[in-house]
Amino acid sequence: MSSDIRNFFKAAAPKKKREREEEGDDPKPKPKPKPNPSSPVKTTTTTTTTTRTPTPPVSPPSKKKKPLGIDIGASSPSCPPPPPRAAAAAAAAAASPKKKKKASATPKPPTPKELRQKALKSLKKAIDALPLLDESKAEESGFSLREKTADLNPYNQQGGAEVEPRNRATKGKPPRGEADMFHGLGFVITGALDSLHRNECEDLIKRHGGRVTASVSGKTDFLVVGLDSGSSKVKAAREKKETCRIINEDGLFALIASKEKKSSQDGTTGALPKQQEAEEASGSKPAPMAVDLSPEAGLLWVTKHKPKHLGEVVGNQSQRGLMQSWLRNFKDIHVLKKDVVVRGDPRHVKKQEELREKKAVLVSGPPGLGKTTCAALLAKAQGYFPIIEVNASDTRGKSDGDAKKGLNGKTSNQIRELISNSALPSAAAGSSSKESRGPIVIMDECDGMSGSDRGGIGEVVDCIKNTKIPIICICNDKYLPKMKPLRNVCVELDFRKPDKRMIARRMQQVCEKEGLQAAPVALETLAERSNGDLRILLGYLQQWKLTRDTLTYDDVRGSSIDKDSDISPFKVCDVLLGFEGKNYSISDQLNMVFQDMDLIPLLVQENYVNHRPQVAGNDKQRMKILAKAADGMSYGDWASQVVRGQGEWGIMPYQGVMGAVYPATYVRGQREVMNLYPNEPNMTRFSAWLGKNSSQSKVQRELREVGLPSDYLPLVQRRLSQPLLDKGKEGIDEVVDFMKTYGLVKEDKDAILDSLRPKFFKNAEDPMKKVPTAVKSALTRSLTKAELVRDWTVPKPKAKSKAKAKGKAKKK
């Protein structure tokens, strides 16, 4: 055996010995240390500990084996004896992280059904104590049904209008109960209540956590009735008598009083102290200023609570599913050219077929819905890497054709190289992500590119046609004229505003993480007032958390979170002419008219006759009201001429009031159809005056170019059409000779015939309608041959190309 091998074993032997000692398997026990003769020595055994006097040194211990894991000699506190094998195994098992029990999961939030059952259980005694309502005793119960004969009267519109409560001045203030006592319960209000208006009753229910809807359904728990209640709602509630209860205003007050707050002074129910009422009216008490030293303390909630996975995205599930299917099958369909069968919802068959054909997706919708975040999360979930996000409104220039300016040039060059080069996508994915599908391009704010940009939308369209990787385009308004080329090459996916309940559930999760106690009804109201914009809502909640720890419905009522949203002119017309308009002041109505000062007065003028005025009792009164509205619109037209003709912009508010607000206030009521044609839709019509005025202006401009007096036009029209009706093609020469005599050309003939159409004259007949199409075509060819066409030049013969000339020369 060589010296190297011996040295190796010598070095390895102590190591193996140490391992055996640590495991408790060393066959040779450690020798006992020699006792100190000057001090007593304690000998530790498995059973007892004794103290003995000093003795002279003893002989070495015998070589008899001791039990494993037991040390007979003295041991110091710093070096305890090794534990037995079983104890060591138990200690290792206890210290192993795999054997630790998992922490208990967070409890799931209660479902709407559980919340509903909990609220009904807490109000069971109060519900059982409510008396049954008798509609025959309307004075006592405050409940009566609307007369059936009243529904037959077309001018009876009490269902849309609201009368003044009869006991509003004599009845006291409503009680105030616990904040969430109605949480999970649904209410419907109908009829004229005893002392509250409907909006006040709705605020009272929402203040206590309830939900108010417009119609009775399976989720309705209480129908609050009054005088002249709707028969359809009462009938639906009686059909659901096991789940829906009919109560009046006093019954609603009794439910609230059963959970009424107690005064902190005497412990009795009643009105709250003035100091407490002031605190509740202005919100909760200010939150103590706490110093948060976490890394996310200075972040905005919009960034801090940005969705990290698809489960945190709110709404638009169907659109997300279509985009996910398109990303999953993009490479197989557009790169590998495989015949992939796309499965999905049968309602989206056409959209799925379109996804197979096109290489890009156009996501459109209002701002704040999470379109860009959703696209990035879907791409990440499908394994696309890297995700290249580009702001299309910043990347404006057209890419250069020079290859030297490729990846080292501007962003448009880099994108073009990335989508057209087959080697770059795999290189961009990198070697670290072996399962990556390759890169993806997300182009945000595509509608921000203006028509003056060099390239613009055309450059994006060209990139989409030649791409080998998926492209997701995002915009706010896809109906802009400049977006039409992009819509032709993309699959359109419309993102809509989520339901306010979905937004409230997501905001509730954020509030729980941030320590803000927010009522669900308050969050639903904020979601509705923010117009579905999650970014605005998160900013408001973060600002509120700086000074308050709780958020109630009363805090939200006076908030200034209303988002300035663009309302369509048709929606403005519906609001002004419908019952909803009475809830707006004149200033608010004028602001809505200013959304489109030119179109909205025309829409009111087109549709005001279709509304049955609420203040009219019969047809005679209706005609007088329509005359009043027409007078107001005439004053509005006069003001419009002064504003645009003389530049008197100071009277523009007067124009808006007299042209739209004044007539709408008179004719406000239910909309009805006039039966002008079969299946006439009951909806706001577009202004017909715009089309007629445009055509009339065109005809008048063309007639001025003809130069004939207006008295001659009927006779000239007859000389141009009658020969064609009587003789057919044989009368073409007569028409051409007549036009040469008066110096008319083809455009003059068309203007003369258009000026006398039934479109402008009710009793006129179109003579050219009876002329056969073949005769009209022959007349057009004859006029062109006779050069009776304005700005007409003889076409030049096509020059022969040099290539063809050389080819003929070679043949010769």
From TrEMBL:
Regions of biased composition (Low complexity) lie at: 39-53, 86-96
Q: Which CDD domains match?
A: AAA, HLD_clamp_RFC
Q: Where is the composition biased (Basic and acidic residues)?
A: 138-150
What GO terms in the biological process aspect are recorded for it?
A: DNA repair; DNA replication
Q: Offer a single GO CC term for the protein.
A: nucleus
* Similarity comment: family membership: Belongs to the activator 1 large subunit family.
Name-wise, this protein is Replication factor C subunit 1
Its lineage reads: Eukaryota, Viridiplantae, Chlorophyta, Chloropicophyceae, Chloropicales
